[in-house]
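Lecture notes, continued. The same structure-token format from the folding unit now serves as the input rather than the output. Read the line below as a description of shape only.
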């Protein structure tokens, strides 16, 4: 039996107005701090009620495009949104897709290399200071669980520092999004347990060599190092996932009865 596609939901008037305002913002080249017309002007322009205008403005506020200020001199002020809300929404979408490290690295092996090459010659002394401070923090990690978790996050932050200097905003977003995905996987799969000295040492070495290549503005060296770094990191991630899967097969009950089990896990145990 052929299934008929479900009808597309008709957009509400407030959604249409918010979309039109976004187009207008882009067309007019408006920037952060600029103000939108007041509610009365928008009501007249769109021939709608105050409630509809307020709903449209609320949509823009939730999307992080404006800040609504009350009182005299208030109104809708343009705000440059951060990438975090968009990244979080995409990660939520993928949360139920059984994503693994290999799938993340299918993209990361390509995009991280191109991003790294794109920032050659664009890093200033402040950027190098941030990268070197990051490496120093990684190398000072202590041999206990919380520091290993922090170290994994610091290693990802090294790559975020590079992405912030990337001249291509889409490429920068994708690289930072993939780093956020890996950060989530680190937490969910406890990728900081057990201690992995070989992985730590490899990351330190690649990061030091990359900084030297960036300082020398050697694009080919940067490309080679980042490509090798991504392949090496994928290998460690795959080994870790296999190890964790083995532990789950051997003793699944131990994963939900530990002292760090979430309240939801504890509740599920009690209901069984």
């Amino acid at each position: 039996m052929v299934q008929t596609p479900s009808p597309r939901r008709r957009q509400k008037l407030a959604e249409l107005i918010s979309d039109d305002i976004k187009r207008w913002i882009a067309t007019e080249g408006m920037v952060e701090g600029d103000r939108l017309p007041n509610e009365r002007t928008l009501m007249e322009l769109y021939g709608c009620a105050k409630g509809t205008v307020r709903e449209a403005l609320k949509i823009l506020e939730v999307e992080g495009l404006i800040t609504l200020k009350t009182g005299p001199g208030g109104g809708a002020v343009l705000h440059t949104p951060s990438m975090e809300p968009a990244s979080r929404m995409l990660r939520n979408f993928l949360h139920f897709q059984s994503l693994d490290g290999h799938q993340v690295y299918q993209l990361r092996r390509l995009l991280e290399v191109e991003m790294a090459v794109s920032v050659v010659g664009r890093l200033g002394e402040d950027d190098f200071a941030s990268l070197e401070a990051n490496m120093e923090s990684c190398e000072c990690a202590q041999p206990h669980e919380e520091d290993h978790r922090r170290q994994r996050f610091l290693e990802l932050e090294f790559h975020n520092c590079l992405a912030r200097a990337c001249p291509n905003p889409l490429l920068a977003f994708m690289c930072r999004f993939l780093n956020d995905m890996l950060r989530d996987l680190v937490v969910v799969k406890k990728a900081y347990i057990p201690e992995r000295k070989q992985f730590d040492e490899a990351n330190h070495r690649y990061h030091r060599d990359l900084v030297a290549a960036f300082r020398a503005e050697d694009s080919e060296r940067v490309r080679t190092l980042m490509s090798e770094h991504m392949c090496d990191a994928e290998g460690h991630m795959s080994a870790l996932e296999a190890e964790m899967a083995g532990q789950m097969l051997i003793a699944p009950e131990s994963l939900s009865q530990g002292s760090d089990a979430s309240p939801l896990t504890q509740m599920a145990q009690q209901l069984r």
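Point for the exam: The CA atoms of residues 42 and 140 lie 56 Å apart.
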